[in-house]
Amino acid sequence: MTSDESPDVRRVLLIAHTGRDDARVVAGQFCRSLYAHHIALRLLEDEAPELGLDLDYVEVVKPTADAGRDCELVLVIGGDGTILRAAEMARECGTPLLGVNLGHVGFLAEAEVDDVDITIEAIVHRRYVAEERMTLDVSVYRDDTGDGRELVMTNWALNEASVEKAARERMLEVVVEVDGRPLSRWGCDGVVCATPTGSTAYNFSAGGPIVWPGVEALLMVPISAHALFARPMVVAPTSVLAVEVIARTDGSGVLWCDGRRTVELPPGPHRGAPRSHAGPAGAAARGAVHRPAGGEVRPAGHGVAGRCRTSPSRGERGWLGCLRSCGSARWA
Prior knowledge:
Structural class: alpha+beta
CATH architecture of the largest domain: 3-Layer(aba) Sandwich
Distance between the termini: 26 Å
Number of domains: 2
Helix content: 10-25%
Order of helices and strands: EHEHEEHEEHEEEEEEEHEEEEEEEHH
Radius of gyration: 21 Å
Strand content: 25-35%
Strand order of the largest sheet: 3-2-1-4-5-6
Number of helices: 7
Shape: elongated
Mean pLDDT: 77
Largest sheet: 6 strands, parallel
CATH topology of the largest domain: Rossmann fold
CATH superfamily of the largest domain: Probable inorganic polyphosphate/atp-NAD kinase, domain 1
């Protein structure tokens, strides 16, 4: 903020998938409209030239963890991958996210590209609500035969943390635990630990259940387990889920957080322990996804049952509509 800037200035950080022509067009539409309503704009320095706005009123910042500081919203133009990238720049400063979907599925976005004018109006008139979402705190330990275990890495995830095999030709042998109690042992391709927000992502592809975002729970789903009894589990949000890679396993593993942040797990006893974290009051970006409030974004008159009965020609977008029609699932 400059010295001559009012302390109550409204500011939006816009993050876009600049590799797509339609994303650049929609981003330009948002920028021009928001500026016309006296809302300051902030862009990332690696995206601003790609947008080609030629606007002297745009603030340009580096893509760091505090890029969204002092912003009212982080507005994301793209698909789920772009939203997960934006979450990394909004979480630390507690700035809420609002996604406009340009991807194929867009489970994380609340507005569609056809809703641009409605979404702009909702932002201008502050007709949106912030909903806090659960995230995972992730810790990786390596067992030490001498002094116990060594902390290798800490991280976080909005959708899921997954322990996976690093090589196609080798399985992982793992022991899974809940709250410090061993539960089962599998030879498998990996294990997914997901939040309700991430239940429509990797968890869903691996055969896990879809859990409404308002439900407080954690999910654990084995990936291609070579076992008769390896079923998805839903546990308490306060639980600690641990996945231990057995020391004598033939293959090495890798931990992924939201498919973006990773650490290698070479052969040896490693333990990944995701636990839920909703953040303190007001820290909306610790798992917060937000959307314009009211009926502007959600299709009016479409209930859950009606949205599930989508024509086959629309494919998986039947699930997308179903999730968006639930009154308790308001987020960005």
